[in-house]
Write a structure and sequence with these properties.
By secondary structure, the protein is of the alpha/beta class. It has one domain: 2-Layer Sandwich (Nucleotidyltransferase, domain 5), CATH 3.30.420.10. The chain contains five helices and five strands; from the N terminus they run E-E-E-H-E-H-E-H-H-H. Strands 3-2-1-4-5 form a five-stranded mixed sheet, with helices on both faces.
Length: 156
């Protein structure tokens, strides 16, 4: 089976992160701080997304859909999606509720519960517990890769 290189993005008001997956394996992650100024933050986020595309060679991207809780985060997400589309990178989306339902039965109710599960699944991220966008990106990437695997297996 041919695996793709997925870049899952996590966005907060002050940081942006990417978790790179080959199949369900977390291969690499990177975190960048964002400036306070909105336009500078957008410029920095765009540069980060371009760096991910050019240097890490992703074949697909994942990004959280729905309301992100602030217009700044939604503006950054929109800008990142524009760069991905301009580069011809397919974008897969999932909502936070889908992530909550996918990781536990009964579903978790809060992001902190999901992040604890992610730290237990990826112990290499345990020293990054305070870097919420990275943990969110890892959760999103794992969800998208698992859904892809289940879809492939159900059609075989």
């Amino acid at each position: 089976m041919n695996t793709t290189r997925l870049g899952a993005f996590g966005i907060s008001r002050r940081e942006i992160a990417v978790a790179i997956f080959n199949g369900q394996q977390l291969d690499f992650w990177e975190i960048r701080s964002l400036p306070n100024d909105s336009e500078e933050a957008k410029t920095s986020a765009l540069a980060f997304a371009r760096w991910v595309i050019e240097r890490l060679g992703i074949d697909g991207a994942a990004i959280l859909s729905g309301k992100l809780g602030s217009s700044r985060k939604e503006h950054l997400r929109s800008a990142i999606c524009d760069v991905l589309r301009e580069s011809g990178i397919p974008i897969l989306e999932a909502t936070q509720q889908q992530l909550f339902a996918a990781c536990s039965n009964p579903p978790v109710k809060r992001p902190c519960e999901l992040r604890e599960i992610i730290c237990s699944l990826f112990p290499q991220l345990s020293d990054q517990r305070e870097t919420l966008p990275l943990l969110d990106a890892a959760a999103l990437g794992l969800h998208v890769e698992t859904q892809s695997l289940l879809t492939i297996n159900s059609t075989s």
